[in-house]
Amino acid sequence: MARMHARRRGISRSVRPYRTEAPEWSNRDKETITKQIIDLRKQGLSTAEIGLIMRDKFGVPSVKLATGKKINQILRENSLATEIPEDLRNLIETALGMRKHLSENKRDIHNKRQLMLTESKVRRLVKYYVKSKKLPAGWVYKPETAEILLSR
């Protein structure tokens, strides 16, 4: 499959093996895994960071295989999920960094183009999240108010 904003293909890399249940050597206790995820979230870590820590420190290669739920589902059930999905939040932070760079370096045409592409990805993702009801119906990305959104 080709890249979104480039005329080239992706790179080949390793793929996680197909499994339907957690391996025997992994930690499988649902209550302790859920408790650890909640504790890590209260420390202010994102879902991606929580997944890495669960894999590296606690021996859980896949939270979904061990508990039957994804990390986001566990956080939603315990009302610890964020208002804005994590991938959208990361793209908005990237766009804000680019806007800050452009305010200092007005002639940087390459950054201007990357900002356009990033904000188009943000708008496309917002459209998807509004359609799938993960964001409210009238939610629109505005660069002027994006910094206020992320400070919550």
TrEMBL record:
Keyword check for Zinc: no
Membrane-spanning residues: none
GO BP term, example: translation
SMART domains the UniProt entry points to: Ribosomal_S13_N, Ribosomal_S15
Family matches, as InterPro entries: Ribosomal_uS15, Ribosomal_uS15_arc_euk, Ribosomal_uS15_N, uS15_NS1_RNA-bd_sf
PANTHER family documented for this protein: RIBOSOMAL PROTEIN S15P/S13E (PTHR11885), SMALL RIBOSOMAL SUBUNIT PROTEIN US15 (PTHR11885:SF6)
Keyword Manganese recorded: no
Protein family (similarity comment): Belongs to the universal ribosomal protein uS15 family.
UniProt keyword terms in alphabetical order: Ribonucleoprotein, Ribosomal protein
Quaternary structure, from the entry: Part of the 30S ribosomal subunit.
Protein name in the entry: Small ribosomal subunit protein uS15
HAMAP family attached to this UniProt entry: Ribosomal_uS15_A
Molecular-function annotations in GO: small ribosomal subunit rRNA binding; structural constituent of ribosome
Cellular component terms (Gene Ontology): cytosolic small ribosomal subunit
Gene3D superfamilies documented for this protein: 4.10.860.130, S15/NS1, RNA-binding
All residue ranges annotated as the Small ribosomal subunit protein uS15 N-terminal domain in the record: 1-60
Gene (name only): rps15
